[in-house]
Amino acid sequence: MIMEPAINQLNLFSQILCPRPVKPLPVPTARAISFRSKYRKAYYLRHPEKLKEERKRRYLKYRERELARRQEHRKKARLKNPELERKKARDQYRSYFDRNVDKVRAYKRRYSKERRPFVKAWKIKIRDEFLKEYGGKCTCCGIAERSFLTLEHINHDGKKHRKDTWGNSTTLLLDLKKRGWPKDGFTIFCWNCNMATRFGQACPHKEEK
Fold first, then answer.
1. Domain that holds residue 165
2. 158 within domain boundaries
3. Over the chain (209 residues), what is each successive 10-residue block's mean pLDDT?
4. I need a surface site. Which of 8, 70, 107, 208 has the fewest CB within 10 A?
5. Domain total of the chain
6. Is 135 left (phi over 0), alpha (psi -120 to 50) or beta?
7. C-alpha pair distances (Å), 201 with each of 99, 113, 142, 187, 206
8. Residues 66, 72: contact at Cβ < 8 Å?
9. Which residues of 165-200 are buried (b: 16+ CB within 10 A; e: fewer)?
10. 103 and 156 Cβ atoms separated by less than 8 Å
């Protein structure tokens, strides 16, 4: 007499060797899709708070994973086509700004007022690091008054550098910090020496010597 486990094993082998054809799932008709959408809409109208709570719960549950996935996707997209990503970001900001002009302006006024002391202190810190790394004085005339000092591009390629870094003085210094404060091609000049050599001319301090 064949025991029940043996019978079940034979049935399993027969299903593996001679599988039964699987019927394809029926394609939903337009009427069925319309009925589902109407049902979901009616359910949402009856239970809006319940669905909002459920969405919030799911968002909080998978928030970290979703944010990490989005950041990774954006990073790959920026590396693949940076110009397209910049254009998309500008278009999205412009579209949002056009739809919420008053809201954006009010937020900027409030945010800038609140953050102004912190931003100012942060910019001073970056500038202090820059001056420390490059000697803290003009390499042409030797003046050490920090209010007179600025970054000098030895190869006169400051325009290209500003364009590459979306350029103001702080972004230039941040770019140099990110690159490890390179000494090749960069130094400190006072504003007098910087303006005197702007168009490739020799500085009067060197002519006097």
1. 120-208
2. yes
3. 48 52 58 72 82 86 88 87 87 90 89 86 92 91 90 86 80 90 91 84 73
4. 208
5. 1
6. left
7. 50, 42, 19, 17, 11
8. no
9. beeeeeebbebbeeeeeeeeebebbbebbbebbeee
10. no
